[in-house]
Amino acid sequence: MTEQTNVATMATPAVSKTRLPTQWLGVTPFFLFAVLFLVLPTMYLIIGAFQNSDGQFTLANIRQLFLDPSIRASYWVSIKISFWSAVLGALVGLAIALAIVRGGLPNWVRSATMTFSGVASNFAGVPLAFAFISTLGRLGLVTIILRDVFGLNLYTTGFNLLSSYGLILVYLYFQIPLMVVIITPALDGLRKEWGEAAATLGATPWQFWRMVLIPVLWPSFLGTVILLFANAFGAIATAYAFTGSSLNIVPILLYAQIRGDVLNDPHLGYALAFGMIFITGVANTFYIWFRTRSERWLK
């Protein structure tokens, strides 16, 4: 009987255990999209930044980023707009997130706020520029109401929507909701047991915030501020639709160099893009570092 069983086992063909890596098919479109529209264009820009019109290696384009006063000014304006929109957006967004998470508000308020924040954080470009011009422009709805009803003319007070300060105001429309979307999970990770333990040990609410919550939230807050900075620094559609070429920021200057209407030095444009890639790359590196620290605290 044993011999017959062994013979039957030997006669049965072995089933192959080799499996095709079908689990990778789902993420293949993502990697293909990333390579075609992110990795390859980035490498093309970096290589072009170190070439001249004849395709030879040169550092002249990189040197011009530091020597040309208009380019230096454009970087400074872009950094200033990105910094203030990131800081103000982070502070206001944090206040909103604290109100909906720890403020004791009804659940529908949180749901409505998160839904709106998810939509508004992606609302940019021509529609956003048109909305602000129609609202706060010289003939905007709010401007006319303030002038005719309250007797306040915004533009006689020095207010100018088509300026760097006006662009900061426009950027806040999507910076604040983005802050709410990102910081809310970090606030959800704060455990109620920490407050109960602090109260048991006799800590005041201010001591609990100063010694527990703020140190825990600080990496998440700084990381989100850096992410908001990178988000604003690379934005061009909203700025160009809002101010045209009147505002000297890096994305608009880069667009003018590559498009070649007046300026026509694509390789200098590649160098401008390389500078933007470097700044946003450093910002995102710090963001990942801060996020890692915050996740370690909130586990």
UniProtKB/TrEMBL annotation:
It is a multi-pass membrane protein. The lineage of its organism: Bacteria, Pseudomonadati, Pseudomonadota, Alphaproteobacteria, Hyphomicrobiales. It comes from Mesorhizobium denitrificans. GO terms for biological process: transmembrane transport. GO terms for cellular component: plasma membrane. This is ABC transporter permease subunit. Gene3D superfamilies: MetI-like. Its main location: membrane. InterPro entries: MetI-like, MetI-like_sf. Keywords: Cell membrane, Membrane, Transmembrane, Transmembrane helix, Transport. It is found in: Cell membrane. Residues 75-289 form the ABC transmembrane type-1 domain. The chain crosses the membrane at residues 30-50, 81-105, 125-146, 167-187, 207-230, 237-258, 270-290. Belongs to the binding-protein-dependent transport system permease family. CysTW subfamily.
